């Protein structure tokens, strides 16, 4: 309820990510917002840099509202600055998976409808391999090294621009504006570009913050790829919307995980997929329990290793969440219930309509009642497909889908609980269990869901 109330307040005030971030800049300008290795950016520095970048993008690159820029960059403290700057002038950032090459990379650039690419020179060889498809793009590069012919060094003139915000542009923005395109992992074909609005990003980040108990004083360790939702939105937005410090690592390292947490005084750490298992595979060390991490946040911590993980590394709280980048059925297990990914109290289903429906186990196609033609809700201890009802009048239950409208249509199931209604198919097969306080706890089953470190 608090999450919904917060989002509704921001919606009424027409606050987007930039408006909230500016409030934190005023409150704690000299506090560190982002750190990567020994390089830091304070809240004021992030504000100054993003203001200069937004002016550069508008005046020198002729970018305007609703344009798209593809970003192909490694993790760094500057990564969130690019899409924050672009959002200040209403430009959408397509966050390209840095593992993509060849035809897959060409596809991701094409579906984004971007005309500009910001890339690090470390990716020059990858881009040269698809050079024929880059002829219509404006190319901006960062870093030292070999570049694509015709590319412009982004930082050559940025410092010449004013550090004052383009308030006219920022005030044109709304909470429902598109902010990011984040790509699916491509397990069912080529990656699809999911639409992330300001509101969607704010809901995901604040949902995790409020449910898990992340505080302004927390230092968050983020070793996840910033081109995915978990690292880029759930992680980085804790600084932008919540005033926390986010420590970014260039790439996940099991052997350096706890060493980094100790070095940077981290109190919260993120994980996805197999990260917890990788950490358990490392040799025992005094660092295992010498850190200050009280809370880990993420998705994919397997029940089989949950207890071993929290005991070995002395973790007080685990906030396991579930949610697809593009979906509307996000869930959070804030009760530390081992193996669960979330719950919906019976009294909350009216305002957050997430359900499980019976499906064919092999195809995940809905099983319908022979008399009514409607879908069938799961009962206790029955597995089913997790779905979220689409309510256009409620911002948290809308479905923005993908850039590809046909792909969006395929994600929707119609005539589910009543004629004319529709839900979003999460694609996740889960088990419904009854728990104390009449909560509905769901556990992801392995039948069609693979938690890997490269996924969301």
TrEMBL record:
Keyword Transmembrane in record: yes
Entry membrane topology: Multi-pass membrane protein
Catalytic activity as recorded in UniProt: a very long-chain fatty acid + ATP + CoA = a very long-chain fatty acyl-CoA + AMP + diphosphate; tetracosanoate + ATP + CoA = tetracosanoyl-CoA + AMP + diphosphate
Keywords (A to Z) from UniProt: ATP-binding, Cell membrane, Ligase, Lipid transport, Membrane, Nucleotide-binding, Peroxisome, Transmembrane, Transmembrane helix, Transport
Keyword flag Manganese: no
GO biological process terms, semicolon-separated: long-chain fatty acid import into cell
Molecular function as annotated in GO: ATP binding; long-chain fatty acid transmembrane transporter activity; long-chain fatty acid-CoA ligase activity
Domain (AMP-dependent synthetase/ligase) ranges: 21-377
A GO cellular component annotation in the UniProt record: endoplasmic reticulum membrane
Primary residence: membrane
Pfam families, A to Z: AMP-binding
Compartments it resides in: Cell membrane; Peroxisome membrane
Family statement drawn from the similarity comment of this UniProt entry: Belongs to the ATP-dependent AMP-binding enzyme family.
Functional summary from the UniProt entry: Acyl-CoA synthetase required for both the import of long chain fatty acids (LCFAs) (C14-C18) and the activation very long chain fatty acids (VLCFAs) (C20-C26) by esterification of the fatty acids into metabolically active CoA-thioesters for subsequent degradation or incorporation into phospholipids. The transport and fatty acyl-CoA synthetase activities are genetically separable and are thus independent activities. Esterifies VLCFAs in the peroxisome matrix. The VLCFAs are actively transported into peroxisomes by a PXA1-PXA2 heterodimeric transporter in the peroxisomal membrane.
Protein name: Very long-chain fatty acid transport protein
